[in-house]
Design a protein that fits this description.
Distance between the termini: 71 Å
Number of strands: 10
Largest sheet: 8 strands, mixed, barrel
CATH class: Mainly Beta
Oligomer: single chain
Number of domains: 1
CATH topology: Sortase, Chain: A
Structural class: alpha+beta
CATH architecture: Beta Barrel
Number of helices: 1
CATH superfamily: Sortase
Strand order of the largest sheet: 3-4-5-6-9-10-8-7
Length: 245
């Protein structure tokens, strides 16, 4: 009887260990490889002259987690690539759950696809960063808000706490590259703090963090502490330049 009970405990332990290995290693491996292939596919498409569509922006929508802020289209006036002020208008067609841009964060050595939506099974679990529906697109006035996993499934935002003010964040699209500079970091807030993704982002839990004036913002959100989803970490940046592809 004791022997049988011991075997059962060993079997349960092995199964649990395999589940942990699958979650922490296998999902990361598969998601990272898939994300890398998608980045390469987008770059090939853009390199072959796949220009932006004439249809612009996305409609208002609902989203999960800290999402829930709405926004409408617009065009940004950002510093050009050595040519003074340049007006930019986002025109790439966006399809739900499909990757359409690449997020580049040099300090983190990160190049990851950006897909429309923040669904875990359709977007985030593929190792992608997800765009909150209803927030702005790259280069538009307002808030271009993104979410990504901190652990498992590619964990693109695992090292987000390493970012510092003045670090650059690039967003590559078929039209060109938008460059933002990190301006504020909110280490921890509620997962329901919808203020952080509003057009003028400002925490409703910790109102000393965020902005009071309209601008051209990017927001990065992820879970914190590691291996939990109880709170959210937020990084904000401001648009500083746009370079035509």
């Amino acid at each position: 009887m004791l022997w049988t009970g011991g075997e059962l405990l060993v079997t349960v332990g092995v199964v649990l260990m395999l589940l942990v290995v699958h979650q922490l290693w296998w999902t990361n491996r598969e998601a990272k490889q898939g994300a890398e292939r998608k980045v390469q596919a987008l770059e090939r498409e853009w390199g072959e002259g796949g220009g932006p569509s004439v249809r612009g922006g996305v409609g208002k929508g609902r989203s999960g987690g800290v999402a829930g802020a709405g926004g409408t289209g617009g065009s940004a006036s950002a510093a050009g690539s050595g040519t003074g002020r340049r007006g930019t208008s986002y025109t790439t067609r966006v399809v739900a759950s499909q990757a359409y841009a690449v997020l580049v964060i040099p300090r983190l050595g990160l190049r990851v696809p950006i897909a429309e939506g923040v669904s875990k099974p359709k977007v985030l679990n593929h190792g992608y960063v997800g765009h909150y529906p209803g927030t702005q697109q790259p280069g538009q006035a307002g808030n271009f808000a993104l979410a990504g996993h901190r652990n498992t499934h590619g964990e693109p935002f695992r090292y987000l706490p390493r970012l510092r003010r003045a670090d650059t964040i690039g967003v590559e699209t078929a039209a060109g590259t938008y460059t933002y500079v990190v301006d504020q970091i909110l280490p921890q807030t509620s997962s329901l703090d919808s203020g952080v993704v509003r057009p003028v982002p400002r925490s409703i839990v910790k109102p000393s963090y965020g902005y009071r004036e309209p601008g051209y913002y990017i927001t990065l959100t992820t879970c914190t502490p590691e291996f939990t989803s109880r709170y959210r970490m937020v990084v904000w940046g401001k648009l500083v330049s746009y370079k035509v592809r």
